[in-house]
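Renewal narrative, Specific Aim 1. Our central claim is that a sequence can be written position by position from structural information alone. The example that follows is taken directly from our test logs and has not been curated for this report. It begins with the structure tokens describing the chain, in the order in which they were read.
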């Protein structure tokens, strides 16, 4: 099973997003998946120029000469995509959005009705896809992820990919400092690993583990107090 994971945190493997992503990928590898991990901060991917040349003139080839030349074939041929991103400004990071936009060469310019909505049929071949979203954010409320979930689910529907679930960790920075201070948060990373195993063995992820990953670890009042105190001390 070919898996392509893309982490768009500029903090790469030192970030809060990696704390959830990495055990998840370990679980997948343990179950026998062939996993490749890329960081957007290592890639030079320019914004889409919006000329639709890939759809109307060059049959699925973007005219820009940057890293998307070799990343797009990996996206096309992977069977599972893992989109890992911190919440930035209520959505995915800029580099993740740029990468998603640059997937336009995969879409035929024609349109068809799919599940009651007008969508583009895939232009490129590749295999059928499953998509997992992995995200962390600063605030403790799960609603913080709502705009991103709507976005990624709709992108899946447009790409004809199956949305297999989301590993969502609110209060990401609080989780990281609790881990550093020896607080009992290990169950979160164990659950992330379990979901990786599950996705490969069973083809799906159970709610039970997703709930553990998102479980409350700190109250709103405590976050407010810690953050405001830190800001005042600086
Ligand atoms: C530019 C920027 C925008 C952010 N926007 C939000 C936001 O809208 N909501 C939120 O809860 N956290 C926000 N955060 C906090 C990050 O999502 C959070 O710290 C995350 O865990 C960082 O992940 P990382 O360590 O993998 O980079 C923002 C952080 C930055 C730097």
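The sequence written for that structure reads:
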């Amino acid at each position: 099973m070919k898996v392509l994971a893309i982490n768009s945190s500029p903090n790469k493997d030192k970030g809060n997003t990696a704390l959830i992503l990495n055990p998840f990928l370990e679980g997948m590898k343990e179950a026998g998946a062939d996993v490749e991990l890329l960081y957007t901060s290592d890639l030079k991917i320019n914004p889409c120029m919006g000329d639709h040349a890939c759809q109307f003139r060059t049959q699925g080839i973007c005219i820009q000469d940057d890293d998307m030349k070799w990343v797009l074939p990996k996206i096309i041929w992977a069977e599972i995509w893992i989109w890992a991103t911190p919440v930035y400004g209520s959505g995915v990071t800029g580099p993740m959005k740029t990468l998603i936009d640059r997937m336009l060469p995969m879409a035929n310019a024609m349109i068809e009705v799919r599940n009651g909505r007008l969508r583009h049929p895939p232009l490129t071949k590749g295999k059928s896809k499953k998509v997992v979203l992995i995200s962390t954010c600063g605030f403790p409320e799960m609603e913080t992820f709502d705009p991103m979930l709507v976005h990624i689910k709709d992108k899946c529907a447009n790409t004809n990919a199956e949305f297999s679930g989301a590993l969502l960790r609110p209060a990401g920075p609080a989780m990281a400092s609790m881990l550093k201070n020896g607080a009992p948060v290990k169950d979160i990373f164990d659950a992330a690993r379990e979901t990786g195993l599950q996705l490969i063995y069973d083809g799906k992820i159970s709610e039970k583990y997703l709930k553990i990953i998102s479980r409350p670890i700190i109250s709103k009042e405590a976050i407010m107090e810690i953050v405001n105190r830190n800001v005042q001390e600086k």
